[in-house]
Predict the structure.
Amino acid sequence: MSGGEVAGILVAVFWAILVSFLAVALARLAQTLRATTKLVADVTDQAVPLLSDASSAVRSAQTQIDRVDAIASDVQEVTSNASALSTTVASTFGGPLVKVAAFGYGVRRALGGRKEDGPASPAKQPRRTVIVGRTIPAARRMKRKKD
């Protein structure tokens, strides 16, 4: 056997091994493609019902948003009506009620003053108001020291 024949046999063996590896790789690639095709089909079968459910949920949410919008506009109208009613009541009854309260206070004050002015009641001291953090003017301080 010559050197050329040995080299030819080596090249043939190398090509046979290379073709064997390529055949195994192609067989595994075909198996992966079959699994991927099955996975895509399963996802498609599950995605279609999910998309229809999501679509109905979005429609339902839109309906609820429309209802909430209608309720909010009704509440705004009721609020403005209540504000107008409050203003009307305050202007209608507020003035006369203040006058009646002032009159009642004046009557009580007048009747209370007569009772205190009687001979049996002792003389009342004027009330002093204490304001924290406020000083008395010098003229008033001197007056107090003299008393």
The chain has two helices and no strands.
